[in-house]
Each structure stands twice: as structure tokens, then as C-alpha cells.
Amino acid sequence: MNNIPSSLDVRLKARNGNNFTTSGLANSFVQTNVVIIPKKFAYDFMLYCQRNPKPCPLIEVFDPGEFSSSNAKNSDIRTDIPEYKIFKNGKFLNFSENIISLWREDFVTFLLGCSFTFENELIKNGIDLPYFKSGKNVPMFITSIDTINAGKFSGKMVVTQRWIPREKVVRTIQITSRFPNQHGTPIQVGNSEEIGILNPHKPDFGDSWIPDDKNLVPVYWACGVTPQIAIQNAKLEIVITHSPGKMFITDLKDEDMAVI
Amino acid sequence: MNNIPSSLDVRLKARNGNNFTTSGLANSFVQTNVVIIPKKFAYDFMLYCQRNPKPCPLIEVFDPGEFSSSNAKNSDIRTDIPEYKIFKNGKFLNFSENIISLWREDFVTFLLGCSFTFENELIKNGIDLPYFKSGKNVPMFITSIDTINAGKFSGKMVVTQRWIPREKVVRTIQITSRFPNQHGTPIQVGNSEEIGILNPHKPDFGDSWIPDDKNLVPVYWACGVTPQIAIQNAKLEIVITHSPGKMFITDLKDEDMAVI
What we know:
Number of helices of chain A: 6
Shape of chain A: globular
Radius of gyration of chain A: 17 Å
Number of strands of chain A: 11
Oligomer: homodimer
Structural class of chain A: alpha+beta
Number of domains of chain A: 2
Distance between the termini of chain A: 32 Å
Largest sheet of chain A: 7 strands, antiparallel
């Protein structure tokens, strides 16, 4: 018996109205960040992603009005994410279980790579990720690092945080180098303050984790929640995203994303 | 004395009206393919690049009307390429030494990665590239492989060809894996016919090379000339590109492009 759910299993679980974090679920399938915006803003947003590939690595851009991913069979982007965030005029309005009633023919969906892809590789290398098995969410922080703007889109970079044993830091860098479309190498190792994180135990999104071992070093990766900040700054009439840590699961396999 | 020209030296040489191939020149600087199109077609073209990252890896997209690259100090995209190709309504019209008189405020310039980036690494590994030192142009072929379309853009993939000693093929794959934004790994090793190349000594662009050694294997990489085919199929009112093998030289260093 194989108890690991397939990508479709997880999509169907979300479609049936369940709300859950996806870290560690369907653990050989590529998970993605999601941004859905009207077509008229899509050029500037795609340009923003092109100029900021570490936080915003593009995996797929749908045609306008399309709601099924060409990388996820029988998928429906309107229902298959465990929780959606709705933004209007740059302000977060509410969470939603699905977006069927909001759907428009001019909506363009962007799927962006997610660091969950390299987590299995970290686990295989003996690097413990406590939130991974507990159903908790990875800690995420808004840094002091400016992204490169494109049109109306600009803002600070968001990062994920993982505490890595000192002797595994080099291996961690090697592992994540293989996945440039899933945020790739860390943007900071060890010095939280250097990227404007004054309290590394108080994340802006996700769950805090206080390490009980002096040997652990905080390591930070660019995060696909970054565009949620840029979207708020751009004050678009409407934007829909996934809720942090509650991702869209494709049929792509993590290992297929490795460049080497 | 260092006789290797800087990136600016090569741009100035082109600006002064000289016509030359850039393979092997300024050999630690990143060279790029160039596509210049009106803003109204830029969304579909950027999407075409996103969907076809092997032939069309995006290095930079300029703001409309901008003619200086943020990756090349004091550059002018209207003069700094040795030779331009002008297409009108999908047909190749003429070559040009510069495009000053054609420039429009709604022109968007795209820089795409080029396989010349990994050529120095191949040379360092004892892989001889005869056209590299001779001032000749790398052989390029239109294959039978369909790219993924976006809006009006569609067409066959163009590839570059290099003849590699049999015992160096594995090393060649390793070296080029490090540069996913410069076409990365080969798309075909050894079997030209499998990608629709019936005569591997008769390229569609560039110069033919007939190897004199039975030990050499033809290896093919996706090529940044691919969008020139897609552009012709799209029949845009006007498009300007570099001439194959006569590239734009940035101030970026080849080694900075390596992901690992």
C-alpha cells in the first residue's frame, strides 16, 4: 500500500472544501504559488517575474480565461487550492474556499515555483524540517531587500526560513542549487538582521519555530509570497492568490525540475 | 598586455559600423540574441519565451522606448549590434548597420541567452570549436521540433550544432547543464535525422563545417534564432533582430550565469 497521496488526490481534497497546508503532502509533485490577475495587468506582472526570478520563477502562464493547468490533468484553478486570498484595490479582503463566483474570462493565472520542491531532497540528506511533518507552515518574513520594479509592481522580498545544522549548510546550498526555478540557492545564510529580520522567531506569515539547538543556523530563500506584497503596492482592482503555505499541486515531478 | 577586447570595446566596434561575427570575441562576457518588437505584441512574445525557455531564455526585457541595457553600461541597442535584420509583415526585408532611423517609442527590446556563454567552458575542457577562432559562424538548423505557441507566435525550433569528440560528450552535457539560461543541456546527441536534419553539413544559417574525424559526434542545442522563425509566422508589421551569430555583448560575465 502506498499512502502518499497523488497530486490529483490533493487537488480533489481541496476541491471538496478542505482547508490544509500542503507542505510535505504529495511529496514528489511540484507545488506552486498562484497569482490570478486581469489580463490588462498581466504584461507588467510577467515582466516583474522576469526581473525577479529568485522570488518569482515562472512555471506556467495560462491563456486568458483558462482555468485548467496544462501541467495538472483535470485540474481547476478555481477550486483546487485549499485556501484563496482575495485582494481588492491593493487591500486584502478575505479568504475563500473557492473562486467560482469571482471567475472572469479576462483572468490570467500565473504558477510560480515553490521551495517545497527541494524539501524532500533536504529530508533525504538528513536535514530535519519540523513543520514539514507536523502540518504547520514554514516561517515566512518580509525582508528589507527591494525587488526590481516593473510597471506598478514593486516591493520588498519575502523569504522562507529553515534552520539547518551548521555542518549541513554546504550540502543544503548544493541541493537547492539544482532547482533554480524553485527559488534555487539561499539568499542569506546565518545573519537574519542583514536582510532586515530583527526577530527570527516572529514570522510575518506561517508558523514560528524556536530551535532548541545552538548548532542550527537560520537559512533564507526567496519566497513566492513576494508578489503578494507587490500586488498590494500596485493596488489592482482585483487579485486572487493562494494562501501562504496552501499551494496548488501540479502533476510535474520535483526531480524533473532539477537542472543537473 | 591583455588583447581580449572588453564588452564595451566590441559594442563600440559595432557602433562604428563594422560588421563581424561575435563568436569567440569578448570571451568572458555574456552575449545575447536580440528581438525588438512593438509593445502591443510584447505580451505574447514574452509568453512565447516563457513557454519555450530552452530556445528563448529571457535575460532582460527593456521598458518601452528604452534603448540602453541595464546590463551593459553606456550601451545603445540601436547601434551596438554588428548587423541587424529587419522584418516587415513577416518577411525579411533587409540587413542594416544600425536602426536609428527606424526607432520608435513603443519598441520593446528582449535580450535572450546565447550558447556562446558556455563555449569558453567547452574550450577549457579541450573541446575544439573550429569556427570559434576562425571568425566563421556556428552552424544553425531549422528542426522538425514544434515550439509551444503563444498568441500569434509559433514555429519550429532552431538549433546550433557542435561536433564533439565521443569521449567528451558526457563532459559536454555536464558543462552546459550549468547554464540553463544559455540554452542549457543539448536537445539531441548524435542523431541529426531524429530532429529533422537530413544533411548535417548544410545549415540553414551560419557556416557549414565538415568534420575530418570519424570520432566526432554532432550535438545540438536549442538556439536563440528560434524566435526569428516565430516572428515570421506571426507576420508582425515590424520586427528587428540581430543577424545570426552577430550578437549583442553585455557587461554580465559568463561565469555569473552558472547555476552551480
